[in-house]
TrEMBL record:
Region Disordered, annotated ranges: 320-372
Protein name: DUF1751-domain-containing protein
Low complexity bias spans: 329-348
Keywords: Membrane, Transmembrane, Transmembrane helix
Subcellular localization(s) per the UniProt record: Membrane
Residues spanning the membrane: 14-32, 44-61, 73-97, 109-130, 142-165, 186-218
Amino acid sequence: MPTLLSTAVSLPPATRALTGLLVACTLLFTLLRLSVSPKDLRNLVGAAGGDSSLLFPWLVLVPGNVGWAPWTLLVSSFVEVNLIEFLISALTLPLAARYLERVWGAAELVKFVVAVVVVSNVIAVAVNIIEATVLRDKALFLYGMSYHGLSALQVGFLVAFTQLIPEHQVQVFGGLFHMRVKSLPMLYVTFSNIVCVLGYQSPYILVQFGWLVSWFYLRFFKYNEGVDFRGDRSETFAFHNWFPPFVQKYVARAANFVFLLAVRFKVLPSWGTDVESGSLGGAGSSPLGVGGGAYTPVPGGQRAEAERRRQLALEALDRRMAAPPPNNTPATAASVSTPPTATASTVADAGTKDGTSPAAVGGGGGGGDKAI
């Protein structure tokens, strides 16, 4: 017990508050359910075993009652209805939130958590309303199903780790095999798809919504300290990279088309000039620059970003050196005789040391396919 208390006290403030909310809401739900006798519980939820959380629509999210209890869009995510789910959430929430709070700060962590859980629950309610209307079964989809638990936020944490430490290796099943962090979100989403197909829509469909909402928030809206734009405009965090290679180009085209519509209707701002390629957008992107945008390195990726920019500078300068010089400019011709590799490396190294983009020093280059 003293160890648990000391661990809880050592947590950063936002992480400690979120963990406390999980424990308090789950404990309240457990006490309320234990207050109902087993006989009454069977009569209320059915002899075959129903969803006992439906007895407390002011604590968990019931789509048909959300108008009367809108706070459940947030609170329900911190309610776990069984011991196994609670233990998993009580382990993953402090560990993941503590790391992100130290990288982002308390305010950004809280905004991320609220955005992911609330928007995911709003989408779930909308999906249930559509299902109730199309299938004409309001009893099931509006009042016979509840959403609860941290599944949406858990996959959101995995998406955030994919942005921060994508190549980090994690041990699965006690070191039986290893996986890269960037592979974990889609593994969780695939599990959610299978479970939903088997008929367990609630609460596992929240995993899919949490993945989409967390990526969208980190891609377009998260505040970056010291940078004049929001989100993450790096190519490595583009939407198509979540899919297998053989469908990525088709997903990229669809994503760019949707982004163009969002910009046209002012849902999202245009990303404007691509500072790496010196043009609007990347190669193959639209004239509005949906694929462009400056890249802000994230913690854990500085070395990879420096190497990428250095390679862009090398390629750009090599192309310039290989171009035929004007005949009437002896000085230029003399400069071409300088070994291209040494010159490119010198410029690239100088750019990475003083914080200047070597791509900008080299006059552009890069310009590969870029998507949202």
